[in-house]
Write a structure and sequence with these properties.
Blueprint (H helix, E strand, L loop, with lengths): L1 E7 L8 E7 L6 E10 L2 H7 L16 E8 L11 E4 L2 E3 L5 H4 L13 E2 L11 E2 L5 E2 L10 E5 L4 E2 L6 H20 L7 E5 L3 H12 L3 E6 L3 H8 L3 E4 L3 H6 L4 E6 L8 H4 L2 E9 L11 H5 L4 E4 L5 H14 L5 E5 L3 H9 L6 E5 L1 H12 L1
Parallel strand pairs: 12-13, 12-15, 13-14, 15-16, 16-17, 18-19
Antiparallel strand pairs: 1-2, 3-4, 3-10, 3-19, 4-5, 5-11, 6-7, 8-9
Helix pairs in contact: 3-4, 3-9
Length: 369
Amino acid sequence: MIKAMGYATSHSFSRLRPIEFEREEAGADEVEIDILYCGVCHSDIHQAENDWGNTVYPCMPGHEIVGRVTRAGANVTLHKEGDLVGVGCMVDSCRSCEPCRDREENYCEGPNSWLATYNGPMKPKAKARTHDNMYRRDNTYGGYSNAIVVKEDFVLRIPAAIPIEAAAPILCAGVTTFSPMRHWGVKAGDRVGVVGFGGLGDMAVKLARALGAQVTVFTTDRDKLAEAEKLGVDAVLEGDRKAYEALESSFDLILSTIPEKHKVDPFVTLLKRDAAYVSVGALAQMPGWNHQEVIMHRRTIAGSLIGSIAETQEVLDFCAEHGIAPEVEVIPIQEVNEAYRKVKDEAVRFRYVIDMASLKTEMVEAQAA
């Protein structure tokens, strides 16, 4: 077994605190990874605070992991010791259902669906109550830790052209916005709308621009208008009726990156015939929309879930080729609770990334005590 340490929470109302735990050593088709950086995703906060009602405690978040391979199993051919690698939202899937056979593991239809990097399988086995009145089931611990062990084909290659710390958010924010652009065929000359201008919105803008699209950002934050324009895109304040009227039936794709419940209706009329409004940020139940506006122009209201392993590698390579990287602020893990507060208060631009050297220092101090 591998002795490990990470930051986890034991209740929806608790702060993240250091805990010691063990990981199994790499099997024949697995690699052990020394974690260097881990991004802080808004999903981490939702999961830690049980906003979706499915959190397994202790909950150790982190699914934007960058590190180096320290050991490769006997049958591993894709990675070797010393390689710089990444791990995103998934660490395994059923491998036998139709989506898995189509290399779309993120839509795995197996008995338990895909295995998340933390919080266990998407479709957990039957729940069982314990004496402490908490539900227990299979769990996984994520990247807010010093090490992780993952199946080799769920590990990504990090291109040298991407700064190590900036590569972390690409593993979630990058592929989450890139996947629907690929699926709906965004190409040069298309018009793409991006609703929300946080971590996902920033990546969506940069990727759409690199694909040759004309981009418009919709934001509720007046201060972000100028920041969007610095990236060479148009920006509209949500609720600006005149601006919305001028944009009716003009977008080939609108991508919503907002992580909370929000109104869809204002954006439906902005879509061209056969165009799609795609939500990638909010898992909450959304308000309804005007079906007449959808039907009359054969518009689509859709969703997209992260991206496949192949798409994640593709977006990493695409970012390296086009010089794309998210805006990040590197923090020690001891500041992660304050980072959560700032993310919830929308007081950070754009993504926090944890430097895991700070955790390793804490481990040394704990061992010496």
